[in-house]
Specification:
246 residues, single chain
Length: 246
């Protein structure tokens, strides 16, 4: 039996275009993160803060600062543990005001997380990291092709009551066609068509391709963070998003 997620179609269709760009603040400390947010100014309204900042000891102070600045927060903490531990962790986090939270794992873990997420925070299940390709799956002993594995995990996330999934833009079209419009799709691994950097991202698409394939949000880190002019790079991507949504 398929359980429809808590995210409504009306929410997805009314997301402001400029909030669909999520910038990854993968930097070592809150001071560096604040500097980048200040540089980006009004060009970015949504930020992802993950494990690197969590290890700085300044995570929740910085999260509160982002909210005070009028930004939305994606807590990319990828909770993965026994269901009781995940349940408790989500219950603790949901009071901090993050809009998104990521979770890994099987149906029991995702159900435990969904039960404690509250009404304001949306739970996103990680399908397959964009740094993983088919060869990596084979080394892990997984015989499914990536598209089938992503879809299988996305279907389990929907059944468990998650609000959406993290999925590459390469698989977004299949996920959207199968799961419908009530599941959010957030796509990382966004890279420009020209002068693509060499890094650990393997399954990549452009911002335009991601939205054409059904993504609701994209996560962009290094192409903005390492740009000569981060704000100009963010505005270019914002223009691509606006054009893709027309």
């Amino acid at each position: 039996m398929r359980i429809v997620s808590a995210t409504s179609n009306s929410y997805i269709t009314t997301i402001p275009a400029r909030q669909r760009l999520i910038v990854a603040l993968d930097v070592p400390d809150a001071s560096s993160a604040r500097a980048l947010v200040t540089t980006l100014g009004e060009s970015v309204e949504f930020y992802k803060i993950g494990l690197e900042l969590a290890m700085s000891g300044e995570y929740f102070e910085f999260l509160a600062w982002l909210l005070d600045e009028g930004k939305q927060v994606f807590a990319d903490l990828k909770f993965y543990d026994v269901p009781a531990t995940v349940s408790s962790a989500v219950r603790q986090l949901q009071r901090w005001g993050a809009s998104f939270l990521t979770v890994h794992g099987d149906r029991a873990i995702m159900e435990a997380a969904a039960a404690e997420k509250g009404t304001d925070m949306r739970l996103l299940a990680v399908t397959v990291l964009t740094s993983i390709d088919q060869n990596d799956l084979q080394h892990m002993g997984i015989t499914l092709d990536i598209k089938s594995l992503v879809l299988q995990r996305a279907e389990q996330a929907q059944i468990a009551g998650c609000d959406g999934v993290i999925a590459s833009g390469l698989e977004a079209a299949t996920v959207r066609k199968t799961l419908g419009r009530n599941m959010l799709i957030v796509s990382p691994g966004i890279r420009p068509l020209e002068n693509r950097p060499t890094d650990d991202q393997k399954r990549i698409v452009t911002a335009t391709e991601a939205f054409a394939n059904g993504a609701d949000y994209i996560v962009v880190g290094r192409p903005i963070r390492n740009a000569a002019c981060p704000r100009a790079s963010a505005e270019i991507i914002q223009s691509e998003i606006a054009a893709a949504l027309q």
